[in-house]
Structures are given as C-alpha cells and as structure tokens.
Amino acid sequence: MSTSTALAGLGAVVSGAAFVAPAPVLAQSASEPDNAIVVTARRTEERLESVPLAISAFSAEALETQDIKSLNDISAATPGFQFQNQAGGGSGRNDRSINNLTFRGLALGNVSPISQGGLVFIDGAPVINASVPAIDDVARVEVLKGPQAAYFGRSTFSGAVNFVTKSPTYDFSGRVKGMAGNYGSNAVSGSVNIPVIDQMLAFRLGASHDFEGGQYRNSADRSQHLGDRKTDAVSAQLLFEPMSTLKITGFASYAVSKDGPPAQAAIKSSEFNCDLGGTSGGYYCGKLPAKLPASLIGGNYQLDQRAYDVLIANSAEYPTIFDPGFNKSTGLKRETVQADLRMDWELGGGMVLSSITAYHSDKTQTGLDLTFRDTSDIANPTASLPGAPSYVKWLLNYQTYVTDFSQELRLTSAQDQPLRWTVGASYFTADYDSGAIWGINPYGTGNSSTLTNQKPKTPAIFGAVYFDVTPELTISAEGRYQWDKIRMSVLASAAGVYYDSPIVQQATFKSFSPRLTVDYKFAPDSTAYVLFSRGYRPGGFNGAYDALSDTEKAQIATTGGSTYKQERLDNYEVGIKSAFMNGKASIRAAVYVDKYRDGQVSNSYTYYPDGSSTINLLSVVENLGAVDLWGIELEGNVTPAEGLSFNGSFGLADSDIKNFICAECLNIGGTTDATGNKLSGVPRLTWTAGVQYDRQLSDAWSGYARLDYRHRGRQYVDNYNAAWSRNDDKVDVRFGARQDANGGGGLAVEAFVTNLFNEQTMVGGRATDLVTLTTNEIRLALPEKRRMGVRFSYEF
C-alpha cells in the first residue's frame, strides 16, 4: 500500500475525532476513557492527562488486546519510539543480544548495555541491556519521550520505557493462556494469586513458555530455520502490608532464552547497483529490494567436530568470560535474573518515604556467522595456512555478562498542597564483561577483540518543586546531579593474550540534568504545557585503541583517542492533552526541537597488527556528532457509538546533521562530511490507525473484531543517505469472543492474523564485508512475514 493511501486512511481517523490510544481489553468495549490510566512518570501516581510530559501508556488490557509482548511491538504502536534488533554496524547481527532503544529519531552509534541513550526500567529500577519481563506479569507500560534524567537517572537522556509489574491481591484467582500459530509457534502461560493473610500478605506465582518459529530456511542447510526464538520464564510477586501506612511489594523473575541462528542476510558487491567513488568500492543506491532470493539467505552454522572444539571446548584457550559450554550450539542463549523490592511508608501529614532496591543479571552467548551468507562454495585463498578452513568462513562466539544493582530513597510531600516537593538520592553500579569473541576465520582460529571489564558507579541526588500559581497554572523545577565514576580494565589483547597487568582507565563524568515546566489546566482532564529539559550520556574509554602499539595507532586516522567525553541533549517541547465528550474521546500532542551535541560517534577503522599481513577492524568512539532534531507526536481515540471505537497515532521525526566525521561515508562516497544529511536507522514518518467493534452475542458471550494498520516510512541505511528501506505498511486483524461469567473470569478465544498482506520490508546498516575485509556491504534484518493463529485464556 502506498504512503498516499496510508495517509488517506489516517485522515479518515482524524475526521472521526482524534489520534491513538492503546486498545482496550480483549472482548471489552474500547470506550474506557484515557483519564482512567494512571502513570508514575514523576514517581507518584498521576492521571495521564495531568502529567505535562510526552507519554504513551499501555494498560495490561491494551497489551493483551494488541498482543504486545516485546519492545518491537511497543515500538510499532508508539510515535517517537523506535526499537529494532541490532542491524548493520560492526557485527550487524539481527538477534536479541543487544537492545537499542531510540527516541525521537536520535539513533546512536555507540551503544552498549551500560551506555545507552534510552533505558528500560522495571518498577522504576534500571535494567541493563533492556531485558523485558514476561508481559503476563505487567500491569502497565509507560513510554516516556525526551530526557528523563531528573527522575530516572543515567542512560535516559533521550527517553525511557518503564514496566510496572502487577501487584498481588487478597483474592484467590488464576489464569491460564495459550497460543498456537503457523511456523510452529506456540505459547503457554499461567499465574495464580495466593492470599496468605487477609489484607496483609499475598503472592502471585507465574510461569510462561513462548516459542516463535523462524520464517526463513538456511540456504546452506535447508533443514535449519533462521529466526527461531524461545523464552521460558518463572516469576513471583509479593504484597506485604504489615500496617495501614506501610506497603511493601516485590518482583522476581528468572528467564532463559534459546534462539537459533538469526534471520539476517547481506547485500554484497555482486548485488550493488552504483559506484559513488568510495574507498571501499561500489554500493547499493536507492530503495532496498523488496526481498532477496532464497539462495542469498543463509550462513555456515554447522558445528562439526573442529568447530565444536574451537567454539565450545575452546581448544585454543582464548580468553572467555564464562564456560563456553553454556551454549553448546550456534545462535543465542541468554539467562536473566530480575528482582526488585519497593517500600512506601506514609509518615503523616501526607509525606511518603519510598525505597526501591533492584538487582539484575544478564548472561549471553551467541554463535554467529559473520559472512551473512552460505560461503561453502567460495574457496579460501589462505587455506594453506595451518588450521585454516577450506572455504571462506567466519564463525565466531560472542560472550557478555553484566550485573547491576541500584538503590533509591525518596521523600515526597503531600500532593494536595499548592507547594509540593520531592527530594531523594540514588546509587547505581554495574559490572560488565565484554570482548570475548573467538572462533574460526579464513586464517585458521583467532581471537577478535580485546577483553574488557567496565564498572560504573553512579551516586546521584535529585529533587523537584511544584508550585500552583493558580489552581490551573503550575510551574515546576526538577533536576538531578550525578557523578558517573567509570573504570575500564583491558584484560586481554585482540590476539587473545592476557596482560600481566590490566590496562586500567578511569574517570568521573559530572552532570546536572534539569527540567523546567509550565503547565496550564485549561479544562477538566485537559492540560497544555511547555518545557525545557537536558540530558547527558556519560563518556567512556576506547580500551581496544589504548591497547594498540604506537605503530598500530599510527595507522588509524582517528581524531579521538583513549577517552571520549559525555554527550548532551537539549529538549524544547510544547504539548497538549485533553479528554472530552464525557471521556469518550482524548487527544495528546507534542511538538519538540532537540539539540544533540558532542555526540559519541562510533567509526570503524582498518589496520595491520604488528608482524601480521592480515587486516583487522577496530571501532573507535569519537565526540564528533552535532545534530538538530524536531518532530510532532499525536495520539488519541474516540468512541462515537456504543461498542465502536477508533484510535490512531502520528509521528514525524526529522533530523539535520550539523557535524559528523563519518568513516562509513568515506567508504561509500569518498568523503567524511555528512553535513546536511539525515540520521540513519530511524523512519521519518510513522502512523497507526485502528478500529474495534464489540457486541453482545448472548447473555453469556460477547464478541469483538479489531483491525490495526501500521505505517513506517522509509529510513536511511547509512549516514551518507545513499540507500534506504521501503515504506512498510502492515495490517493486523483479530476476531474473538469472551464468556461473561458471573463474578468475572471465564473463557476467551481469539483468531488473529498479523501482517495480513505479507508486507516484507528489510532494514539494515552499512558494514564491511568480512569475506573480503575491504568492500562495502549492507547487513539486513529480514522482515517478519505473515503470522496467524489462535489464542485462548481462562480466568478463575
């Protein structure tokens, strides 16, 4: 479907009333007003229309109705928020190893689990690497756009996603759910609510299994699917109220993900259609193809005895973070632990003392073919070297392990006074091991990265003051001062040799992140606001560069060095929120202008290691980015008649590069200047439109039908803006019925089809071809095809 057709569809929604809201509960009327949604963006409960911030909120019912179960799904339904599994860049893998959150078009090139522009939170506590809890445990998801450091701290200088978990109740109840779909997809989950002491102690226990079948076959092994993803999880929640003024809640989960080889591919020099004079030869210009021939989708993932010995048994004894036997196959294995404990104590006079304590861990190992293609028919020109494979092969293992701990204490004044305030302090620390990369390459076996350990420690103080000049007019001042104390230790060289003494770098990055707001309540459930906010992302170290010899450094034309400084984002925003028609319609709109300065740009350089004739790649972070961004975000819904609801959203995210020394641009077009270009990796235009109809079928059953339309405009593959993805238009349909049992609960069934018309749009990023190590390639995340199936749930 064309963009013009899509816009016409959006116009129909606008004429109906307004723009998007999250959809309602399965088989329940969509007329529930948005003012029933409570959010905690400022660490206290407030109605969505009352908070002078750009927020998209999804209730538990909305998550279920739209079958939202991942950050990808949340991104598809939220203007100003973009999430996709890693594509392009140094590794380009389309898997769940690194989660990169992008807000308002600010795609960052230097992202690691401990240094992100946007971060996931569970119950207000930071979660490194954005591991998402099982959606069955979630009561609400809040997507906050723009700098959020004032309340959420580090790594939120462009936005945050907060998952609020369900609290147990004092009634015995439970639920089971199931799903079966094409490609062998299946899911089953269950939870039970257990009251122990009435009005004092209760638990909720849950477990889930989710398997998403891969939609592509490996051309190198037709029996193997690409894109299989499986997650098994268990969880527990606690509610303890020993007295009327004290409430303690807790959440804990353990999950194991086991994915097959990722659904990815590459466009290589043999498929290029232009030559722009770049230093790495030809390139692909214009729209990416709609699809690739099946013969180009594949990878060499077979673990024969030699590959097993190198990757799993680590026969070459390369530096590792943990026992490689953790994952005895190719693809990804991840083990996560998440736990938080929250206390809210009413002190009297309306004051509340709150504490949030959290711990998370993420252990991941991935076996990946970096040729991004079946190369078993390409003879290896270096096959005569000892241990070298007979054909070109890059099969590597990646390991990362990160743990984090955080503690926050906060004192909040009474909320029914014209002058309100909050003061608090927080502490965050993490332990991050990375750079364990080894395996088989065309020269034999090898180690491909320096092994590093990073330990950030971030104490902070924060506060806020809110003053009602009149009952309608409020001015607010919020801010956080933090000290990011970062220590990096380089433990082993890229050659796989441990240093006698680690190379240690450390620095403290200080920052003050303010937010100033003026908001005016011009009608009931209606707010207009203007704000300024500033966010920082801490600096860091180029440990791999620092580990090079002087002769190796001399080959790399970087303007940076061992240390790069923190980057800054200034956000100017005006917005309006309103619920009207007696709660049957609502609209939320925001317009923003952002200034991104001292941006951390990750550029890849080639060099020849001392005493070697083989070329190597090195990624160096440099403070070269300066970008102006602006955009519009609209959401809303309307219920014009009983049982009939419309909703939709619109997002415009534009950018203008002011300064950016761009190494990939040199490889593509022969220049490092990207001035005036758009940032790659994000669509400029997105919109959604949905309609739902609910009807009572009998005294015992109600039914519904729902249609959702999602449009994502083209996005550039590279900062040179030579190649871009096609427009992406997807339609989802759902039909279902629910038993109206006395006292609630009962059976619900649904049939669904996502991507009804099997739209296939590839996204990707420019990288270096690891077959040649000298030419361009575009690494692609293969699109989701049509999925269909049935779901059921039973509540008791």
From TrEMBL:
This is TonB-dependent receptor. Pfam families: Plug (PF07715), TonB_dep_Rec_b-barrel (PF00593). Residues 48-160 form the TonB-dependent receptor plug domain. Residues 1-27 form the signal peptide. Belongs to the TonB-dependent receptor family. Residues 307-730 form the TonB-dependent receptor-like beta-barrel domain. It is a multi-pass membrane protein. InterPro entries: Beta-barrel_TonB (IPR000531), Beta-barrel_TonB_sf (IPR036942), Plug_dom (IPR012910), TonB-dep_rcpt-like (IPR039426). Keywords: Cell outer membrane, Ion transport, Iron, Iron transport, Membrane, Signal, TonB box, Transmembrane, Transmembrane beta strand, Transport. SUPFAM superfamilies: Porins (SSF56935). PROSITE patterns: TONB_DEPENDENT_REC_3 (PS52016). Its main location: membrane. GO terms for biological process: iron ion transport. It comes from the Bacteria.
